[in-house]
Amino acid sequence: MSIFLSIIISFPTVVFTVLLCVAVIYWLVSLSGMVDGDVLDGDVGGDGAVDFGGLLATLGLQGVPLPLMVTLLSLTGWLLSYFADLWLGVSTASGWLSWLLGIVLLLASLVGALFATAILIRPLRPLFVRAYHKPQEKQLIGTLCTIRSGSVGLGSGSADVHVDGSHLILQVRSDSALARGDQAVLIEYLLEEQAYWVVPEKEFHTG
Questions:
Q1: CA–CA separation, 178 vs 147, rounded Å?
Q2: pLDDT for residue 191
Q3: What's the CATH class of domain 135-206?
Q4: Which residues of the chain have pLDDT under 50?
């Protein structure tokens, strides 16, 4: 028991320990009804900002609620870091060697956690597609949107949509030249990519 406690409160495992504790507290508070149960949007955008939703899609972490993704990432990172430290004895090293090995182990655990989380998310993704994207798919086809990412291509892009007073940030795809601020129309929902196919507004009206 002392070895277990020593590892989970030592660098680098303590980083994942803290994240995992925060995730557990979030779910406990959520179960108490004090937190809104809606899916948190993974997109963070705007002028000069990083398209967080596009980053999640690139890493294969999209398609599930953000709190669930963070929980799985924290759990897998904690397991990898704990057992690696248990076998290699990183936390028992001293001086600068301890910090050097700790940083290497932290990065390795994070990379491993990203891959593991992406694999764990795959079977869960269809559940949230049915729960959250199906109704929205039918409602938003034909809706005008404003491109928010620097550009839109076949593999990335995001857009702002305002519907009934609500502001939505959607992943969009297109083979037309679209840039930030351009107007486009949602014409099809791409289920596998969880994104909308869009065409420039002028092309939509001219057929």
A1: 7
A2: 83
A3: mainly beta
A4: 36-50, 131-135
